Amino acid sequence: MLVKADLHTHSTASDGDLSPEKLITLSAHLNLKAIALTDHDTLAGVQNVLNSIKTHGIRVIAGVEISAEYDPGMLHILGYFPANPHGLEEALKQVQTARRERIPKVIKKLNALGCMLTEADVLKEAKDAQIGRPHIAKALLKKGYVRSFDEAFDEYLGKGRKAYVPKEKMTWKKAVSLIVHFGGLPVLAHPYTLGLGSQGLEAFIKDLMGAGLAGIEVLYPEHTPEQTALYTGLASRLGLLVTGGTDFHGPGRNAFSLGDYGLEEELLTKFINRLKP
Predict the structure, then answer these.
(1) pTM score, two decimals?
(2) How many CB atoms neighbour CB 119 within 10 A?
(3) Which residue has the higher pLDDT, 129 or 205?
(4) Which CATH number does the domain 5-92+168-275 belong to among 3.20.20.140, 3.30.1390.10, 3.40.718.10, 3.90.650.10?
């Protein structure tokens, strides 16, 4: 499959390594037709690159990835918009504040474990971005407390690990409804993280559809062939869009590169047609 669009990427506006501008330049170099910028709980990186089709020949889709309440797994909702959704950033202030308030709590736990980080160490990594656990991971790595970014999450920061602190999140109903309210398409991100079997997943997706869910992220690096087939079947049976992307955070952050996963021409056309205002 020849990928034409990567619909799940992150920039320095949240926890990615590349600025939005550099991300678009790389996308153009890889001959992608479209890319969605889906930073965590913010659209701050979107505005300055929306017109990139004029300079790079690539369409930038305004997007966001919102963390929603769910236990025991992890639930993220992707939102895609035909234009910059003015007013949504303000509506996300509550979850952005929760991100910031979580940091000193994690640092306190790390300090008790012998990892002597300060908030200043983490802010240095975050700069002007939406602060999050990846910035703590980078600080731990720089201080020599872990040997890799992944080790920071496996040992300290991942859900249920030694220094994990849950953050305040939206309900999934509010996250989906918010995206719909601002004219967007809500999509269930990487459904494998829910930890549900096929029947439980279908039932939950139907609940999400009741709030306005429009699609499922089917094409994703961590999905097994069996999971991909399951999600494809669910999307077809329930009349949902198929989306996909690499969840790209930067070169070398995992085994996958920008554009390794995403939509081929036909699926991209279907997506764009639904995205039209």
Answers:
(1) 0.91
(2) 14
(3) 205
(4) 3.20.20.140
